[in-house]
Amino acid sequence: MRCMEVHDHAIIRAVLAGDKEAYGTLVARHSQNVFRVAFRITGDEADADEVVQEAFLRGYQRLESFESRAEFGTWIYRITVNCALTMISKRKVEATYQIGEETDPSQQQVQVADTSAGPERTLLSREIESLQAAAMEGLTATERTAFVLRHMEDRSTTEIAAALAIAPNAAKQAVFRAVQKLRRSLAPLRVSP
Amino acid sequence: MKHWNEEELLDFYYGESDTQAAIGEHLRECHECSQSYAALTTDLFAIRPSSTPFRDAQYGAEVWQSIRGPLPAYEAPQKARFSWLRLHPWSGFAMAAVCLLVIAAAFFAGRQWEHRSAPSVAANGSGDQGRERVVLVVLGDHLDRSERLLVELKHAEPSNEAPLQAEARDLLSTNRLYRESVKQAGDPALTTALDHLERVLIEVSNEPAGLSQARLDEFQKEMNTDGLLFEVRVLRSRVQGDVEKKESTTATRKGVYL
């Protein structure tokens, strides 16, 4: 891992020395991780692809500001989180109203679309997945990103705060609010004892 | 018994609580908190990340191809004259510190120099000024005596006494010194006048006996003592003016330095 990071630094030096094509190596090396976090935050494959492109584009443009003490993987990860956050912030309203057939604007509750005519089990699974997706859409951009980084990417509060450029306490509160909202949204799925 | 709230249980779940051990022990003893924590973990466990769509090994290359077109290549850094400053991240700070030290040293050295040189300059200045002023005063005195001698010579009556010769001889030695000094100082008018005066003084001092009226008339005619007297008066007035000027300048400078 350390060797890879050293190699990343060598590639960055080459890029900054005028070898533009060397950046392609960095893109190839980190694109899978970048796509994963982009998809988890945006929840949309096309959006995730767009975020990946935007993140590596910004990374290239800001490469001169990259500090050699940092790791390129961590650096591009943070850029990706910011790009994804921007993406879901822009599309939040559209995404919120996209899922349901009927919506209640006063409460912004979302009805899950029933698009499957499969077996009952498959239907239930898809319903759970859709409900979860809808619940995630009910979060603010910051709450969603903080929760994804904490719960799915296993990032510490400190790392989340750094990625979102907010205070650690604010990052912790964002995660907590997200959990509260998700639990309320997913309450109908709980099996009564 | 204190019960832990949802936020504290969430911190415990993610392993970020400051009281991990205390909460864990409490959960083993408190049925209510244990049930709350179980419900929380069940809900969180249900929220699983949906499977990430597959991206093959060519994905990175495809991403690169999609963005590489408009990207300009970085220009290779020129070897700058001060590139050695980039040898170490702290080099810039070190250079800044060195520059500050040099500036501070120059500042204090300047202050010390000023403190040391100012009095000496004042002293030198006042010394030169004083010396020059003394020379002018003495020269003025010499011209004053010479003027009196010329006036006496003009109005002298034939006599066997020789008081003028003695005075002329006395003035002659000092006049030579002043003439040489003024010549070196580059004052042609004063030099010419002192030269003229010297010749008169030589003639008067070398007279063997008292001056007769005929000799006095001849003397005044040949040596133009009237003209010399006028010159000496003008020069004495000028020297007196210079003395007063030097005095006022010295007083001003003293005011400055004090």
Give the tags.
heterodimer; A: 193 residues; mainly alpha; Rna Polymerase Sigma Factor, Chain: A; two-stranded antiparallel ribbon; 8 helices; elongated; B: 258 residues; Four Helix Bundle (Hemerythrin (Met), subunit A); rod-shaped; disordered C terminus
Description:
Chain A has about 190 residues and is mostly helical. Chain A has a domain at about 1-100: Orthogonal Bundle (Rna Polymerase Sigma Factor, Chain: A), CATH 1.10.1740. In chain A, about 70% of the residues lie in helices and about 0% in strands. Chain A has helices at about 1-15, 25-40, 45-60, 70-100, 120-135, 140-150, 155-165, 170-185; strands at about 105, 110. Chain A is elongated and about 60 Å long. Chain B has about 260 residues and is mostly helical. Among the domains of chain B are: about 5-45, no CATH class; about 130-255, Four Helix Bundle (Hemerythrin (Met), subunit A) (Up-down Bundle). Chain B is about 75% helix and about 0% strand. Chain B has helices spanning about 5-15, 20-30, 30-45, 60-70, 90-155, 165-185, 190-205, 215-225, 225-255. At the A-B interface, helix 2, helix 3, helix 5, helix 6 and helix 8 of A face helix 1, helix 3 and helix 4 of B.
